[in-house]
Amino acid sequence: MLKVALIGAGRMANAHAPQLQKIENVQIAGVYDIDPEKSRVFAERYNVPKQYASQEELLADRSLNGILMCHYCPDHAASMTAAMKAGFRYIFCEKPAIRKMEEGPTLLKTAEQCGARIMIGHHRKHDEINRKMREIIRGGSLGTIRFAKVQFCNNRFSREWGDYFADYERSGGTTLDMVTHYIDLLNWFFATEPESVYARAVMLEKNIPPDRKPSDYVSGTLVYKNGIICGLESSYQRYGVSYDNIEVYGDERAVILREGRLRLYGKKEVTEYDVSDAIPCQEEQMRDFVKMMEDGKPRQTTLAEGVMAAVIALGMLESSETGKVYQF
Ligand SMILES: NC(=O)c1ccc[n+]([C@@H]2O[C@H](COP(=O)([O-])OP(=O)(O)OC[C@H]3O[C@@H](n4cnc5c(N)ncnc54)[C@H](O)[C@@H]3O)[C@@H](O)[C@H]2O)c1
After folding, report:
1. Would you say the pTM of this structure is higher than 0.85?
2. Where in the chain is the domain with CATH 3.30.360.10?
3. Average pLDDT, stretch 260-264?
4. Share above pLDDT 90 across residues of the chain, in percent, rounded to a whole number
5. Atom 40 (ligand 1) nearest CA
6. Mean of per-residue pLDDT scores for the chain
7. Residue of 6, 12, 38 to mutate, ligand 1, most atoms within 8 A of C-beta
8. Nearest residue CA, atom 6 of ligand 1?
9. Cβ within 8 Å of residue 296, ≥6 positions away
10. Centre of ligand 1 from the C-alpha of residue 8, in Å
11. Confidence at residue 282, expressed as pLDDT on a 0 to 100 scale
12. When you count CB atoms within 10 A of the terminal residue's CB, does the N or C end of the chain come out lower?
């Protein structure tokens, strides 16, 4: 029986724990939350035998095979590094992988030196519909890819002011928190490297002091080295209309994921794909983490992919702060 422990016992820990409990050969053996009451409630809910008093205590537990990190982004790099140095080979860490550009290279080097396998929690690659979209793009039926559009707007974004998601310095606002998911997909679709990004962002909330940096809406243009131009729009709005769309245009056809429906558009014909997940994506993500602990083979989203997605989003953040194009 493989044993795992979780750091952070909030929303994502509570999303992953029921998936882990569906898997036969893994046990949630321990939990550590900076708030002991959260650890207690989590331990009771999932019948977890051990509540640690600190991250250090958890990392000293040699009976564990892997760790899931479900706390906040500014702590991800430091916690992953501490876990690797304590001898952990298998880590699942929620996205975004890093909060600062300079964390990326050091983290990748440490993972290589320690022989660690790390998955970053970009679950969209585990969605069958995104896999199908990639298959269409990579299969060549669009012709030469020219541009893509991403629109994520959340009209039910219900965070309380003052919490992590409202705190730009910590979460990076919608740019780092949400756009990373889509950049990770685009990187996977196009298998190329970024050239530059330009973005503008605003704060929607009037009650936030004007010296606080923008975090609620971002509109950016990412250009890949092979010339593909991507328009990226993301917002944490509390009213209006929600969107979750990805459109990819080639010089022959376009593939469009809109309102959960995947369609291929030619000049005259439209093909709709009937895609359903054999296993829900969050369950598949946890099954992949367990398989990674069993066979030692890397699984998506790998640390390198997660860092790359975050680096591009951090370039967008920097551009939205400076007003200048960020060159990679
Ligand atoms: N993959 C997704 O779709 C998705 C969705 C939501 C959030 N997330 C990501 O998951 C992470 C956590 O978000 P959440 O929504 O679960 O937040 P949350 O506030 O619900 O839970 C975070 C928990 O971590 C604890 N915590 C904070 N700092 C800690 C520390 N240093 N050590 C131990 N515990 C600590 C908090 O007390 C809290 O219980 C964020 O990075 C967020 O971006 C991912």
Report:
1. yes
2. 124-279+310-327
3. 96
4. 87
5. 72
6. 94
7. 12
8. 12
9. 89, 117
10. 6
11. 95
12. N
Task: Give the homologous superfamily in CATH for domain 124-279+310-327.
Answer: Dihydrodipicolinate Reductase; domain 2 (3.30.360.10)
Instruction: Choose between 245 and 238: higher pLDDT.
Output: 245
Phi, psi of 241, deg, nearest 5: -120, 145
Residue nearest to atom 15 of ligand 1 (CA): 11
Position 212 scores a pLDDT of 66
**H/E segment holding residue 124:** none
Residues 166 and 207: their CA atoms lie apart, in Å, by 12
| β-strand partners of 306 | none
pLDDT surpassing 70 at residue 9:
yes
Res 207: pLDDT:
73
Residues of the chain with CATH 3.40.50.720: 2-122+282-301
Q: How many CB atoms lie within 10 A of CB 328?
A: 15
**Ligand 1 atom nearest to 122, measured from its CA:** 1
Out of 16, 19, 33, mutate this one to test ligand 1's pocket (max ligand atoms within 8 Å of CB): namely: 33
Using CB distances shorter than 6 Å, the residues near ligand 1 are 7-12, 32-35, 38, 55, 70-73, 75, 94-95, 121, 123, 164, 177
pLDDT per residue as tens digits for the range 187-221 = 999 999 999 999 999 888 777 666 667 778 999 99
Distance from Cα 56 to the centre of ligand 1, integer Å:
18
For 265-308, write each residue's pLDDT tens digit. Answer: 999 999 999 998 789 999 999 999 999 999 999 999 999 999 99
- Name residues whose C-beta falls within 8 Å of residue 119's C-beta, 6 or more positions apart in sequence: 91, 92, 93, 285, 288, 289, 292, 299, 300, 301, 302, 303
Say whether 130 sits in a helix, a strand or coil. Answer: helix
